[in-house]
Specification:
Radius of gyration: 16 Å
Distance between the termini: 50 Å
Strand content: 35-45%
CATH topology: Cyclic Phosphodiesterase, Chain: A
Bound molecules: adenosine-2'-monophosphate
CATH class: Alpha Beta
Length: about 180
């Protein structure tokens, strides 16, 4: 029997061009021997679905579209290093309730629909550098504010050693 077609999927907040630029510039300076994330790949994952049957895409898009959430004001005021996966990341020292609520609602709808995702608890972060040996001493991190008015369903495609992300659909917040 033929195997069903799959896509590697996740939901994420996707930065606009200005924020991408600032994050990518810092990541480049901080990378050392690590790998700075490419500007166009920077994001904050809300739920990681991984390899998913492509036939489920319409249902996944419909459930994401039914999530009601407020625009998110996320301070990126912390930078850190995780030894276990060797990444340098940035994030918020206090997660806004708007973000926790969006993630909880989205994950609850995925669970209710029987769509599988990585059930590890949500720890909001933007990965800036991979394969890093530690936090660099310089440059200092300058806090940023991320105003997110939507979230996205993203497909991940690996071409040779390079991962490319495709924004499949964006889902807007409730009008303020
Ligand atoms: P990371 O940046 O902390 O590695 C695409 O792989 C995105 O999904 C990345 O942001 C990655 O987080 C996140 N992600 C979450 N759970 C994952 C998993 N089980 N496997 C791969 N990526 C995962």
């Amino acid at each position: 029997m033929e195997r069903a077609a799959t896509e590697r999927l996740f939901f994420a907040l996707w930065p606009d061009g200005a924020l991408q630029g600032r994050l990518a510039a810092w990541a480049k300076l901080a990378a050392g021997r690590g790998r700075a994330m490419r500007r166009e790949n920077l994001h904050l994952t809300l739920a990681f679905l991984g390899d998913t049957e492509a036939a489920l895409l319409p249902e996944i898009k419909a459930l994401a579209a039914s999530v009601q959430f407020d625009p998110i004001r996320l301070p990126l005021d912390r930078v850190g290093y995780w030894k276990h996966n060797r990444i340098i990341w940035c994030g918020a020292s206090e997660e806004p309730q708007t973000l926790s609520a969006l993630v909880a609602d989205l994950r609850a709808r995925l669970s209710a629909a029987g769509i599988r995702y990585d059930p590890k608890p949500f720890v909001s972060h933007v990965t800036l550098v991979r394969d890093a040996a530690g936090l660099p001493e310089a440059p200092a991190w300058a806090p940023l504010i991320w105003e997110a008015a939507d979230f996205a369903l993203v497909g991940s495609v690996r071409v040779e050693a390079r991962v490319t992300y495709q924004l499949l659909q964006r889902f807007p917040a409730k009008a303020g």
